[in-house]
Amino acid sequence: MWIKICANTSLEDAQLAVDAGANAVGFVFAESPRRVTRTQVRAIAARLPKNIEKYGVFVHPSFDEVADTVMDCGLTGVQLHTTSDPALPLRLREHFGDMPAPKRLGILRVLHYTTDFDAQVGELQPDHAVDAVLIDSRTAKAVGGTGVAFDWRAAQSSFLRSAPHLRLIVAGGLRPENVADAVYTLQPWGVDVASGVEAFPGKKDPAKVRAFVNAVRQAAAEIEKVKLPAEA
Ligand SMILES: O=C(O)c1ccccc1N[C@@H]1O[C@H](COP(=O)(O)O)[C@@H](O)[C@H]1O
């Protein structure tokens, strides 16, 4: 299972995620207590292993903002929250190329789990520009980094009904104590966490980061064990 530890603000925290066994680290370029600058991320990303995926998180970004930041910071992926331009993923895919990993720019489109989830999935452009859909919660104040979980049980049937063809990444209010339950309930392709592994906003807690990754790996292994040979 793919694991991203998001909203890192220092090399120490990003390296902690790498050492704990995460597949990807993320950096928030949007309004947030965890916001970082391009200068910071360029310096951090250059010191991380080549094989760790490095995602930039953007809210309502322009094409130029995303494309310039990818090049400037050496990002390998982007996470697009609430964009008013539905064609943005396709424009980015055309710009960066439709090659296979590891050269491919990862594009994650964020949807919020609300009662109109099915409609949101229906509005996704069927252009194959998006590699995975990240399902998050939102509050009146924030579109990400909320620390609030959505109703996984209710979401499960929506996912099966409207998004069985999509790679799903679950986010929103995940913590070391509840992530296994989310994995068992939703059986996603990946998980993502920001505030749930922090000591305080903008600073990761090493014990929480390790416990989170271990809990996901263990839950994913349990799921594999009960799969029929044909499904595995
Ligand atoms: O982390 C933030 O502050 C943030 C701000 C604006 C957009 C996205 C943000 N983070 C993303 O939010 C989700 C879940 O966060 P949490 O685990 O509930 O705190 C995650 O995908 C982060 O990438």
UniProtKB/TrEMBL annotation:
It holds the Pfam family PRAI. Residues 3-214 form the N-(5'phosphoribosyl) anthranilate isomerase (PRAI) domain. GO terms for molecular function: phosphoribosylanthranilate isomerase activity. It comes from the Bacteria. Pathway: Amino-acid biosynthesis; L-tryptophan biosynthesis; L-tryptophan from chorismate: step 3/5. Its EC number is 5.3.1.24. It catalyses: N-(5-phospho-beta-D-ribosyl)anthranilate = 1-(2-carboxyphenylamino)-1-deoxy-D-ribulose 5-phosphate. It is an enzyme of class 5 (isomerase). Keywords: Amino-acid biosynthesis, Aromatic amino acid biosynthesis, Isomerase, Tryptophan biosynthesis. One of its GO terms (biological process) is L-tryptophan biosynthetic process. HAMAP family: PRAI. Belongs to the TrpF family. This is N-(5'-phosphoribosyl)anthranilate isomerase. It comes from Acidisarcina polymorpha.
